């Protein structure tokens, strides 16, 4: 069984998609359609923008979504047996398995990006990568701090990203270092993604999702909020809304995909290496490649 997986923020790079635009008519159509839907030349920013341009949440999220969908259109691939996406990548996964149309997916991604950027501007927060500790230790220490600080990304065994207020992250990184973390590195991100500080964005995105048609998917999506397979369109909606303030359970998603019979993972979009590296740290036996 083959699972197609789609990366989220952090997988962007300068010049992304320019080669696809030149080499594939199907990809060109995706870029033209995206520019038309958004009402601005996202493709120009992707092809020629600086790293700083691409770091803006309102650009990064639609750029990664469009890049993944251009690759999906440009290259031959088998019908997926399962799909999953890391955070933002879940929207790409839902287009790949037929739950969302490309047009609706892009509109939701852009709404999500604007909502998250607005939430970040109103409430200062940040994130930190914690390396070399058991998840349970990180969870316990975050829970002991009288500030907003929560586990946000369960990326692979021994790598958990936490998210919260500036003070909460400062206190947590201090305590986690004392507890034996190999590294407790504050990340250069726009805000406290996947934490309660994203609640205003969740409310705004919920309205947009509830007004969008979700179709019956052709295969399960393993969703971030619980790492489990989902086929019910209404349940997929609920989980996608909860994802904005909930943790990304990527380790659990990969483990559950393997338990369900997946032996091959294909990463679609971004640099093509972000999720592949994490999957190999979860299980070295599976086959991993990029599209």
The number of helical segments is 13
Structural class: alpha/beta
| CATH hierarchy, class of the largest domain | Alpha Beta
Q: In this structure, how is the largest beta sheet organized?
A: 4 strands, parallel
User: What does the radius of gyration come to?
Assistant: 18 Å
- Cα distance, first to last residue? 16 Å
CATH superfamily of the largest domain: Malonyl-Coenzyme A Acyl Carrier Protein, domain 2
Oligomer: single chain
Overall mean pLDDT: 95
Shape: globular
The percentage of residues in β strands lies in 15-25%
Query: Numbering strands along the chain, what is their spatial order in the largest sheet?
Result: 2-1-9-10
Q: How do the SSEs run, as a string of H and E?
A: EHHHHHEHHEHEEHEHEEHHEHE
Number of domains: 2
CATH topology of the largest domain: Malonyl-Coenzyme A Acyl Carrier Protein, domain 2
What's the total count of β strands? 10
Low-confidence stretches: none
CATH architecture of the largest domain: 3-Layer(aba) Sandwich
Determine the fraction of residues in helical runs and give it as a percent range. Answer: 40-55%
Write the layout of secondary structure elements.
Layout: E1 2-6, H1 18-23, H2 25-38, H3 42-48, H4 51-55, H5 57-74, E2 82-85, H6 89-96, H7 102-122, E3 125-131, H8 135-143, E4 149-156, E5 159-165, H9 166-178, E6 183-186, H10 199-210, E7 221-222, E8 229-230, H11 233-242, H12 250-259, E9 264-267, H13 274-282, E10 287-290
Parallel strand pairs: 1-2, 1-9, 9-10
Antiparallel strand pairs: 3-5, 3-6, 4-5, 7-8
Helix pairs in contact: 2-5, 2-7, 5-6, 5-7, 6-7, 7-10, 8-9, 10-11
């Amino acid at each position: 069984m083959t699972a197609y997986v789609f990366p989220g923020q952090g997988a962007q790079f300068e010049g992304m998609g320019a080669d696809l635009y030149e080499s594939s008519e199907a990809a060109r159509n995706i870029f033209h359609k995206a520019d038309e839907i958004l009402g601005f030349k996202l493709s120009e920013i992707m092809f020629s923008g600086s790293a700083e341009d691409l770091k803006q949440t309102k650009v990064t999220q639609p750029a990664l979504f469009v890049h993944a969908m251009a690759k999906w259109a440009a290259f031959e691939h088998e019908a997926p047996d399962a799909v999953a996406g890391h955070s933002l990548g879940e929207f790409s996964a839902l287009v790949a398995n037929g739950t969302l149309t490309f047009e609706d997916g892009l509109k939701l991604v852009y709404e999500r990006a604007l909502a998250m950027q607005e939430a970040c501007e109103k409430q200062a927060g940040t994130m930190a990568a914690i390396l070399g500790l058991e998840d349970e230790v990180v969870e316990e220490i975050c829970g002991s701090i009288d500030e907003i600080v929560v586990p946000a990304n369960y990326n692979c065994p021994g790598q958990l990203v936490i998210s919260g207020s500036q003070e909460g992250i400062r206190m947590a990184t201090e305590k986690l270092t004392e507890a034996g973390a190999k590294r407790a590195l504050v990340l250069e991100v726009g805000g406290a993604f996947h934490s309660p500080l994203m609640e205003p964005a969740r409310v705004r995105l919920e309205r947009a999702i509830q007004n969008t048609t979700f179709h019956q998917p052709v295969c399960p999506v393993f969703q971030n909020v619980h790492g489990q397979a989902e086929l019910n369109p209404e349940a997929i909606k609920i989980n996608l809304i909860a994802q904005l303030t909930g943790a990304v359970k990527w380790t659990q998603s990969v483990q559950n995909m393997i338990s369900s019979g997946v032996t091959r993972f294909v990463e679609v979009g971004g640099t093509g290496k972000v999720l592949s590296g994490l999957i190999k740290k979860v299980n070295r036996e599976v086959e991993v490649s990029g599209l």
